[in-house]
Amino acid sequence: MGIEEYGGGQQEHSDVLVVTTNDVPGYDVQRVIGEVFGLTVRSRHLGSQIGAGLKSMVGGELKGLTKTLVETRNEAMERLVEQARARGANAVLMMRFDVASGSDAGTEVCAYGTAVVLAPRV
């Protein structure tokens, strides 16, 4: 797995800015729209579960599960942006991820934050 497969985040030229901070330097919040989130749940396939079980005996990174989690986080982030855009936002402030793992259900990832309309400070 190459380095590009380990990361995620926003596309370079997105029309909705997503940040983990409370504000954006040089911009003022014109309107707070409210909470938005993107949610996805992924199950692990049998092959990755068997591989993870074998790997846990000898130690080391579970690369298949790492790749699945990266893909899951990216999907949750895309859904967050879609929801913010649909509600008229051009930014999401204080974005966070919440991850929960169920033994049978798989892994749930929720990206959430506050949708706002930003304008350049004058």
UniProtKB/TrEMBL annotation:
| Family per record | Belongs to the UPF0145 family.
Name-wise, this protein is: UPF0145 protein HUT08_15930
* Species per Swiss-Prot/TrEMBL record: Streptomyces buecherae
Q: Pfam families given for it? A: YbjQ_1
The UniProt entry, under InterPro entries, shows: UPF0145_dom_sf, UPF0145_YbjQ-like
